[in-house]
User: Which sequence fits this backbone?
């Protein structure tokens, strides 16, 4: 399927200053939100109690919250789990209240409101504050180790400047996704960390496809009597892989959006992180990775003839 004509020549690298400036602004906003506003950490990281109950008939979440508010749990996170009858109630850590007491209070409140024969306890899980800190640290290191591993892998497969360009694009993607979660105050949990690692893999795959074509074109360019500037070759490579990049992102987004819409509340945050990450990752594989890779060796030092060739090359 050919959705984009084969001779397309969009001047991606010619507009690199606009793209990099836009990214710099978005990164600054994201970092400001993360540092000063912070993240809405889930009980995986802060510690707390998770209670799963099953109703024999569908009950509105607002009425459930109304029932447990007098017990002091009005700020609990309440969501459907699989079906409208299965409900998850997550209560932030309370150092002076045991998990068994919290679950008993919630079950009693729901039984009094809806009847003892209409609700049953399915499970109770407790995450202590110390475990939450360990999970927070483990999640952070998982991302860092992944970035280091990617740096080594790309450096071995290509060159150091390719590896640094790829890692810069990945850091760009992660910061923006986390910044969006901070902006909209969406709960940041272990499932979101899993989504971030998935975004790293997806974005890297997109970047590697572009880098592979760049390397092939570099090899062909060196054999010419009058080799072209590397920036021109890179711009050609991005255009040559554009159809594949857009089609892969589009089809992947269709699946992830379906998960977000039909997958239920439990995976909403995971799917949302993927939606943002895939969109940002597609952008960074085109506008961030390659320009940074070229900039590391000053390959943007082009003559006026090179600039015109970059704009006119079919």
Assistant:
């Amino acid at each position: 399927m050919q959705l984009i004509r084969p001779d397309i020549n969009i001047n991606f690298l010619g507009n690199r200053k606009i793209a990099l400036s836009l990214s710099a602004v978005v990164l600054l906003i994201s970092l400001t939100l993360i540092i000063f506003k912070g993240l809405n950490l889930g009980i995986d990281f802060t510690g707390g109690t998770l209670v799963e109950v099953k109703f024999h008939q569908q009950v509105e979440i607002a009425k459930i919250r109304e029932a447990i508010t007098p017990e002091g749990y009005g700020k609990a996170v309440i969501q459907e789990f699989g079906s409208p009858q299965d409900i998850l109630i997550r209560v932030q850590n309370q150092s002076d209240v045991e998990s068994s007491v919290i679950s008993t209070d919630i079950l009693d409140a729901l039984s009094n409101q809806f009847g003892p024969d209409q609700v049953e306890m399915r499970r109770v899980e407790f995450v202590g504050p110390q475990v939450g800190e360990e999970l927070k640290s483990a999640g952070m290191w998982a991302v860092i180790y992944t970035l280091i591993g990617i740096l080594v892998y790309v450096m071995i497969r290509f060159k150091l400047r390719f590896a640094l360009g790829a890692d810069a694009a990945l850091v760009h993607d992660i910061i923006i996704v986390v910044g969006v979660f901070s902006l909209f105050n969406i709960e940041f949990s272990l499932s979101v960390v899993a989504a971030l690692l998935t975004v790293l893999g997806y974005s890297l795959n997109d970047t590697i496809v572009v880098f592979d074509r760049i390397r092939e074109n570099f090899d062909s360019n060196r054999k010419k009597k009058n080799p072209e500037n590397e920036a021109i070759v890179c711009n050609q490579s991005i255009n040559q892989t554009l159809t594949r990049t857009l089609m892969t992102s589009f089809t992947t987004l269709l699946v992830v959006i379906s998960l977000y819409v039909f997958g239920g509340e439990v995976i909403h945050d995971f799917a949302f992180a993927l939606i943002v990450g895939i969109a940002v990752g597609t952008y960074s594989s085109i506008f961030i990775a390659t320009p940074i890779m070229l900039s590391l060796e000053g390959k943007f030092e082009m003559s006026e003839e090179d600039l015109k060739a970059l704009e006119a090359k079919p």
